[in-house]
Amino acid sequence: MNAFRFDDWDTPVQPAVSGIPTVNRNFSPKMETHAAALAPTNAADKRIVNGKADINQLAPFKYPWAWEFFLKANRNHWTPLEIGMAQDVHDYHHKLSPAERHVFENVLAYLTTSDILAMRNIGLAVMEKMSAPELQIYQARQVYEEALHTWTYQHCIESLGLAQQEIYNRYRVVPEIHGKIALANRRLEKVLRSDFDLTDRANLHEFALSYFFFAVIFEGCWFYNGFTPVFALQRRGLMKGAAEQLQYIMRDEVLHCAFGIRVIRELLIEENLSLDPTALRQLWDEAEAAETAYAGYILREPILGYNAELHVQQFRFIANRRARQVGVAEPFPGAENVLPWLDEQANLRKEKNFFETRVTEYQTGGALAWD
Ligand SMILES: [Fe+2]
Ligand SMILES: [Fe+2]
Asked: Cα(223) to centroid of ligand 2, in Å?
């Protein structure tokens, strides 16, 4: 009697009826032979990129921290429908000044496009190049989360009755918003090609640089700092529903950034690679210039407790923190923490009303570490 082997996907199943020969005219002689036994996978054979270990076999782990990231991400689950937006509708139409509405709308306009770009970067450019399944699995979750973030912005736009087409098109017609998106698109296009050969050292460096840009700058600085104008409104009791939505997104983004930084650090060690300081400097300078132009547009008039200068200074402060986390030189030495409330404001607090009305509590509370 033939026992079914769960580890054998190649051998065609044939009915085991004695005395009756089984004929299948589609079988080639090669298909009729049993697959050769494969050598067991060793964790040591796994690599961030260019690995040869079995991509379909989760364990043994070489990067157990990546699996931990996946478990952690699953403890921060919500949908935008769970957060009340009724007060925001009133705030937006009756309480916000024209300058505050300008800030809010343009932050939203930037974010709608950014999160789709983030999704495409991880899902199309990065994930396929990872050669360990524990890395890909967290990134699969990340792809979903970026889609969830897009849903969240769309939900805000719909709830507030904003002109959808106009908001989504704004990044195309406002150069200061387009500048950030164009920068990201350039980075994405360089590494998106499926024939981008990472055994080539120059390509590998380009990939590491691109990953650095998306994890450290795009997610770790631009997103982290980018929600701040809305948190400034939240601190004054305005747009609290939208701000809470952004707090949930930010918690995801902090994990995305932390994961990306960990991947970059491991990649550089594994590949004996270092990021070219001149290329990094250019990256930081371009990012700062784009952020400065963006801040000048969204905050062309300051709002109470927030202005363009504070926004840019805080970008520089966060950039230094991210650089230290990766282990590269601080790009803006001496930058000060001009918004000390940002880290605290960004952290999710549990006293919000919707927690009390939910049937099930979120598992996390303060369980996620920030930074
Ligand atoms: Fe996102
Ligand atoms: Fe992200």
From this structure: 8
How many whole angstroms separate alpha carbon 255 and alpha carbon 142?
9
Q: Give the Å distances, CA to CA, from 163 to 106, 168, 169, 253, 279.
A: 12, 9, 10, 27, 40
Ligand number nearest to the C-alpha of 114: 1
CA-CA distance, 255 to 122, in Å (whole number)?
Answer: 14
**Cα–Cα distances in angstroms (integers) from residue 320 to residues 260, 315, 324, 327, 329, in the given order:** 16, 9, 6, 10, 8
Which ligand is the nearest neighbour of the Cα of 249? Answer: 1
Cα-to-centroid distance, 33 and ligand 2 (Å): 47
For residue 311, give the nearest of 332, 342, 286 by alpha carbon: 342
Residue 245 predicted with pLDDT over 50:
yes
Residue 116 vs residue 23, higher pLDDT: 116
Whole-number Å distance, alpha carbon 3 to ligand 1 midpoint, is: 48
Domain range annotation of the chain: 64-357
Among the bound ligands, the one closest to the CA of 148: 1
pLDDT tens digit sequence for 154-212 = 999 999 999 999 999 999 999 999 999 999 999 998 898 888 999 999 999 999 999 99
The pTM of this model reads 0.85
Q: Which ligand is nearest to the CA of 147?
A: 1
Q: What is the mean pLDDT of residues 42-57?
A: 94
Task: Match domain 64-357 to its CATH number in 3.20.20.390, 3.40.50.2020, 1.10.620.20, 3.40.50.150.
Answer: 1.10.620.20
**Block residue for tokens 């509590």:** 361
Q: How far apart are the CA of 370 and the centre of ligand 1, in A?
A: 16
Q: Which ligand is nearest to the CA of 260?
A: 2
**What does the alpha-carbon distance between residue 230 and residue 107 come to, in Å, rounded to a whole number?**
8
